[in-house]
UniProtKB/TrEMBL annotation, chains A, B:
InterPro entries: HTH_HxlR, WH-like_DNA-bd_sf, WH_DNA-bd_sf. The keyword Kinase does not apply. It comes from the Bacteria. PANTHER family: TRANSCRIPTIONAL REGULATOR, MARR FAMILY, TRANSCRIPTIONAL REGULATORY PROTEIN. This is Helix-turn-helix transcriptional regulator. It comes from Halomonas dongshanensis. The keyword Methyltransferase does not apply. The lineage of its organism: Bacteria, Pseudomonadati, Pseudomonadota, Gammaproteobacteria, Oceanospirillales. It holds the Pfam family HxlR. Residues 13-111 form the HTH hxlR-type domain. Keywords: DNA-binding, Transcription, Transcription regulation.
Length: 125, 125
DNA sequence: GTCAAAAGTCTATTTTTTAGACCACAAGAG
DNA sequence: CTCTTGTGGTCTAAAAAATAGACTTTTGAC
């Protein structure tokens, strides 16, 4: 129980640095949508459906910065922009898949826990 | 390419429902901190160090609701509260571990990508 | 007597997100 | 010709969320 104990995540730790980007509501959803293949901006928007243009735009930019997705602009009129997962993005699908699998497997437990908690707090009220 | 294609995550889909909770900046950090064993409120705060009391409190409450952590209040004065991972919380450590491992393995690529992007946008400016 | 610590809560300020208008241009309908 | 739709966004104003910091209550140390 000396200084060695835990504290693995100070501010500029790599894990935190990476996961903070992934952590938003939208990033995982976008990556998942692109897992099926290249999509254009508005295709993504329809796919995710309740994301605002601005958030989609911002998150795509972040994902592009971090090298998860590649953005290809076709200089046509009207403009066409295609977003595709990079190899890095694809490699991320593996741990993300496990996370989703876990969520899928356990969501009933979680839902039950939520209900339980709700009922307990009601009976205390 | 019919309706079957993708759209796996509408609003009330379980994955989304679960991951939205996990998705915050703090949840993963809290779970990671508790992976080492039971901690009290202020111990957690020192562990994570740049989390506000309010966010820690709120996130712990959410994690408790969802059944990831158990909260044990000792009715002493001053009050003592201990937070511990439940079995569900522990089982989550597995996919989370893979995610962290991936982040650890790839953060250099991501950092490089960020720098690259930055330089490209500077040369375009 | 004074100060710190416990585990939070409350409020005010700041940041982030959302909703929605707006842009230039072109193709298709009528 | 005009009207509407679709393209990939950006901009602004309003709503929601996060942060910082004071406050609470009781005990033990000094």
């Amino acid at each position: 129980m000396t200084a060695e104990t835990a504290a693995p995540c100070l501010e500029q730790c790599p894990i935190r640095n990476v996961l903070d980007r992934i952590g938003g509501q939208w990033s995982l959803l976008i990556i998942e949508a692109l897992a099926g293949g290249t999509l254009r901006f508005n295709e993504l928007r329809r796919e995710i459906d309740d994301i605002s243009r601005q958030m989609l735009s911002r998150n795509l930019k972040l994902l592009e910065q971090d090298g998860f997705v590649a953005r290809k602009l076709y200089p046509e009129v009207p403009p066409r922009v295609e977003y595709t997962l990079t190899p890095l993005g694809h490699s991320f699908l593996v741990p993300m898949g496990e996370l989703i699998h876990w969520a899928d497997e356990h969501h009933h437990v979680i839902l039950a826990s939520r209900l339980d908690y709700q009922q307990r707090s009601e009976s205390n009220a």
